[in-house]
Amino acid sequence: MDTNQVAIVTGSSRGIGASTAKLLARNGFSVCINYVSDAGAAKSVRDQIIADGGHAMVVQADVSSADDVARLFSTVDAELGRLSVLVNNAGILMTQCRLEDISEERFLQVLKTNVMGCFLCSKEAIKRMSTDNGGTGGAIVNVSSVAARSGSPNEYVDYAASKGAIDTLTRGLALEVAAQGIRVNAVRPGLIHTEMHASGGESNRVDRLQSKIPMQRGGQPEEIAEAILWLATDKSSFVTGSFIDPSGGL
């Protein structure tokens, strides 16, 4: 596929974001790899894409900062062209604990990155994609989580709450911009083999819990990327306000 389209994937220096950036590039997208702190990892993803014949650039930006997000999008405008696809993947997960042990500072930090980041990036994307603004439409794919349904009790209800907010934002925004040529959908991954679990203090969490998954295994980032790719392209042209749960049956 040669789309000649432009995609921003936030938080794409590792895990699901990195796999998504690579897959979009293999399908003809010019991709902006966004990261907040690990420049080396982001550049490695870019280099892999270029080595495979794709087109990619790297932009550092904290998605919870309105100024950083504005700079991210203006840089893409100047260097890659009009935005076609936004994948709101950036998110953080803190150490496992019960709610009474979660500080106000931690809760706000999770909400700022996971929810405010999605809001700020979507706002900038709509300015560029909306047919009301002279755009040609586009697709926004939000990365939520099955935690939005499970609540993640005794581990990280703050993270789960942030993903519940993403689900509501996805549905509401999809209805708001449907007539402007923009589709908004979400994926809700289950237990996936990524580095994020180490941030929660248990790097082998997927292995510990995989017996509870109907398919008896954890997922791979590449499997989530395939769902995101479908939602990002015209193959899902009549799909908006919808959710795909690549979770092995959870």
CATH topology heading? Rossmann fold
Low-confidence stretches: none
Query: Quick one: CATH superfamily?
Result: NAD(P)-binding Rossmann-like Domain
Oligomer: single chain
Question: What are the secondary-structure elements, in order, as H or E?
Answer: EHEHEHEHEHHEHHHE
Percent strand equals 5-15%
- Specify the CATH architecture: 3-Layer(aba) Sandwich
The count of domains is 1
Distance between the first and last residues' Cα: 32 Å
Supply the helix-strand structural class. alpha/beta
**Radius of gyration based on Cα positions:** 17 Å
Query: What spatial order of strands do you see in the largest sheet?
Result: 3-2-1-4-5-6-7
What is the CATH level 1 assignment? Alpha Beta
Structural shape:
globular
Mean pLDDT comes to 95
Question: How is the biggest beta sheet arranged?
Answer: 7 strands, parallel
| Number of helical regions | 9
Helical percent range?
A: 40-55%
Q: How many E-type strands? A: 7
Family: Belongs to the short-chain dehydrogenases/reductases (SDR) family.
Keywords: NADP, Oxidoreductase
Pfam families: adh_short_C2
Protein name: 3-oxoacyl-[acyl-carrier-protein] reductase FabG
